[in-house]
Structure to design on (396 residues):
């Protein structure tokens, strides 16, 4: 898989945003960002209201995903181009989510909303009206998603990549201080995990670093053993979706999973091993 | 655990429920929390006018990314940091960029006014 199979740049989007069969989708951590201005023809997905089950901690099911995409006028053969704020965290999460339910034609806008804004490109407030489709999703591809028991079994056997900040990894912080309601019970990290903050994979403008730089980061500096499987995690799974995208889609590693339960789940489990401080 | 940590939000905006890893919609409550926090806040201006399209990034003493926010309607930004030395990096259209090193402490509001 080449970089052009999974990424498009801003020039490409400007040239193709009116093409039939191309659907731009904005997904932001700040779910009001779209309403203040978005790329013309883009539709909005709300990562909380649209992508999470309203009762259980889990994703919407296959039928719910079908209804969501049908309602936004997205067809099975459409090329979906995702972008968002904060260096594409939630756009990468949505990309992984689309792949989880089997959508094949999906790309990320390199640099996301930030690069688009820094380039002073057009943003509009007009919401497009797309005719409803009859989207058919597949069952979740569990080869992309790690659940807690698999994570515990991977300790010392697979690559575990903790993509949070060093202070969260060492246990100094449970979470950014303005988010107390989503903290885990205990701080720290999963034993044997390597701390490779997601931000090391991105340039200041939010674009991804080159393949050579990424290879040097994960295969060299971080010392991941690519002959083994890899599980990435953060706090709720969106920063680690960014790293999943780098490892699985850009570097082409075949066995990479995102643990979306992440630290808010693991750090609240009873009886599991936890390490504090620097990696051993 | 320390009560303080990296948080961020455009200055001068009302708080809203915090949904995820990043800044909550519309910014972060400052008045109720600033007493025990190490707040870094400020504005970005160009030729005296607020820069409303751009980003402020907080970088720790080890060079690691900590938080990033879009500039508010008044060119403002705000971070809840921990005590210590930090770098505020501003990015704006036209390739404009500026780094400013600041010190923060608990119970203090460190103000940074930047011209780019």
């Amino acid at each position: 898989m080449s970089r052009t199979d999974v990424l498009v740049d801003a020039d490409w989007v400007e040239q193709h945003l009116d093409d039939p069969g191309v659907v731009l989708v904005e997904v932001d951590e700040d779910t009001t960002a779209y309403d203040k201005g978005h790329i013309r023809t883009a539709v909005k997905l709300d990562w909380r209201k649209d992508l999470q089950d309203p009762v259980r901690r889990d994703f919407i099911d296959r039928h719910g995903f079908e209804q969501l995409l049908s309602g936004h006028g997205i067809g099975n053969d459409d090329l979906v181009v995702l972008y968002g704020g904060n260096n594409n965290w939630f756009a990468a999460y949505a990309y992984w989510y689309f792949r989880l339910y089997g959508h094949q034609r999906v790309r990320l806008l390199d640099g996301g909303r930030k690069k688009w804004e820094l380039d002073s490109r057009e943003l509009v407030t007009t919401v497009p009206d797309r005719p409803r489709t009859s989207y058919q999703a597949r069952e979740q591809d569990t080869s992309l998603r790690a659940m807690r028991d698999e994570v515990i079994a991977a300790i010392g056997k697979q690559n575990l990549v903790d993509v949070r900040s060093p202070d969260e990894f060492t246990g100094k912080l449970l979470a950014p201080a303005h988010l107390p309601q989503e903290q885990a019970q205990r701080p720290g990290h999963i034993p044997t995990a390597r701390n490779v903050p997601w931000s090391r994979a991105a340039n200041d403008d939010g674009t991804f670093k080159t393949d050579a730089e990424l290879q040097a980061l994960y295969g060299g500096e971080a010392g991941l053993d690519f002959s083994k499987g890899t599980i990435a995690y953060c706090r709720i799974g969106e920063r680690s979706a960014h790293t999943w995208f780098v490892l699985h889609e850009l570097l082409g590693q075949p066995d990479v999973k995102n643990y979306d339960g992440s630290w808010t789940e693991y750090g609240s489990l009873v009886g599991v091993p936890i390490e504090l401080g620097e990696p051993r | 655990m320390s009560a303080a940590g990296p948080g961020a939000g455009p200055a001068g905006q009302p708080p809203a429920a915090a949904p995820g890893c990043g800044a909550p919609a519309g910014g972060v409550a400052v008045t109720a929390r600033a007493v025990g926090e190490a707040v870094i806040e400020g504005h970005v201006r160009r030729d005296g006018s607020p820069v409303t399209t751009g980003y402020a990034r907080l970088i720790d003493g080890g060079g690691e990314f900590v938080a990033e926010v879009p500039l508010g309607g008044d060119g403002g930004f705000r971070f809840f940091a921990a005590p210590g030395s930090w770098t505020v990096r501003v990015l704006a259209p036209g390739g404009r960029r500026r780094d400013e090193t600041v010190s923060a402490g608990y119970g203090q509001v460190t103000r940074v006014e930047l011209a780019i």
